[in-house]
Design a protein that fits this description.
Layout: E1 6-9, H1 13-26, E2 31-33, H2 36-45, E3 50-54, H3 55-59, H4 63-75, E4 78-84, E5 89-92, H5 102-115, E6 134-138, E7 147-154, E8 158-162, E9 172-176, E10 184-193, E11 203-208, H6 213-222
Parallel strand pairs: 1-2, 1-3, 3-4
Antiparallel strand pairs: 4-5, 6-7, 6-9, 7-8, 8-11, 9-10, 10-11
Helix pairs in contact: 1-5, 2-4
Length: 225
């Protein structure tokens, strides 16, 4: 199996050095983007298996950069991490904590379990559009079965779906729309906003997976405009 290609997005030099030391300790190869515009260029020009995103870089980015960031997060397996300059330690977003002990364990788990099973691919120029499409969300192993909800935005590569039910990154979900000709659209959870976690709409960002030609044509139509 070819070595997975990872892009790390981080702007702060101290955080970058800390992440690089942890990645070298794990034997993980990586490339670095100092911002999300650079990430967009890299992911259009090359094929990658996953992203590492510094939370502070994401928080401090502009509105346009955040749009690029979440398009990429919707598309690739993503691990969000944070450098604590006071405690000199790496932490992870709440949904990504506890999968493996320590920073090196979490990085290795992310690489082995999520990135290597994701075929390297380039980010196509899918424009994300605000579209409120009714659907039924069914979670993995029957979780959140039959929940009626809607998309907040959508592209040909993924969507953000309103839900207050908990989902972990990597969970598989099925999306059923009222149009019976579309069938069940399969997707993978890439990120989430928990209820009460911030001032944004709670929900999950998903990447579509295994689309049929008919579903691809339907998504192209509904995300156009």
């Amino acid at each position: 199996m070819e070595e997975a290609r990872i892009v790390m997005v981080v702007n702060e030099p101290e955080a970058r050095q800390a992440y690089e030391e942890a990645l070298r300790a794990c034997g993980i190869s990586y490339e670095v983007a100092q911002g999300f515009r650079e990430l967009l260029r890299m992911t259009i020009d090359g094929a990658y298996n996953g992203l590492l995103i510094d939370l502070l870089t994401l928080i401090r980015s502009s509105k346009e950069e955040k749009t690029i960031a979440y398009d990429c997060i919707n598309f690739y397996p993503t691990l969000r991490l944070k450098w604590d300059s006071r405690l000199k330690c790496i932490s992870f977003s709440p949904l990504e904590q506890g999968v493996a002990p320590g920073a090196e364990g979490a990085l290795t788990y992310f690489m082995e379990r999520r990135c290597k099973s994701f075929s390297a691919r380039s980010l196509r120029r899918f424009n994300r559009k605000d579209r409120y499409l009714s659907l039924v969300l069914t979670g993995e192993n029957g979780a959140a079965a039959g929940v009626k909800t809607f998309t907040v935005n959508i592209s040909q590569g993924g969507a953000f779906i309103h839900t207050t039910d908990p989902h972990r990154n990597g969970d598989r979900v099925s999306l059923t729309v009222p149009d019976p000709s579309v069938g069940s659209v399969e997707a993978v959870v890439c990120w989430s906003i928990p209820w009460g976690g911030c001032s944004s709409i709670p929900g999950i960002g998903v990447m579509f997976d295994g689309l049929t030609d008919e579903q691809g044509a339907w998504l192209q139509q509904v995300s156009a405009g």
